[in-house]
Amino acid sequence: MGHGDGRGRLVSTADADDTGTGILHVDMDAFYAAVEVLDDPSLRGLPLIIGSPDGRSVVSSASYEARRYGVRSAMPVSQALRLCPSARIVPPHFHRYQAVSRQVMSVFESITPLVEPLSVDEAFLDVRGVRRLWGSPVQVAELVRRRVFEEVGITCSVGVASTKHVAKMASTIAKPDGMLVVAAADTQSFLDPRPVRALWGVGPKAAEALEGRGIRTIRDIRESSREMLDRAVGPALGTRLSQLSRGEDARAVETERIEKSIGHEETFDADITDREFLKAELLRLADRVAARLRKAEWETGTVSIKVRFDDFRTLTRSQTLAEPTAVGQRIGEAAQALFAQIDRRDPVRLVGVRAEKLRPAGAGGFGLWDEDEDWRRVEGAMDDAVARFGSATITRARHLGRGDGRGAAQHPKAHGVD
Question: From the candidates 36, 116, 122, 299, which is the catalytic residue?
Answer without folding.
Answer: 122
